[in-house]
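**User:**
My hope is that you can spare some time for a protein that puzzles me. This is the protein in question:
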Amino acid sequence: MGDIVTNRKARRDYEILETVEAGIVLRGTEVKSLRAGAGQIGDAFVRVENGEAFLYNAHIDEYAQGNRANHQPKAPRKLLLHRPEIRKLAEAAAVSGHALVPLSLYWKEGRVKVAVAVGKGKQEFDKRQDIKEREAQRQLKRVKMRHLKGQSVARPKP
């Protein structure tokens, strides 16, 4: 089924060093709400506490057909990882300038998964450099396409 929600700001604001796939503990109404595509992780972050990883600030809308037992939209949610993975993420997050950022929520074999990345915060000049590189790649692609179209349209001489 693919991506449910993605964090587009993450790749702009952070240099992604490593990614890890994690399961997430959800209630029934949260899963139903995510099936409807009602979620946001733009401001979300991951924190390791007492040997467990939690996703904070992820907003999953309340399920429209839910009753009084509906979930809290911004509740912290536990991530399911193996101990060595949690330890590795905690060590990476302890380095100054590094953060644990969720990249996306997606379906995998009927279950919701979270792509968690170790990111190093970018400075403003890093962002400008990325934009310049992206523009250069686009320009190069345009030139190649123009060149290819020019060759295919040209007719051979009789």
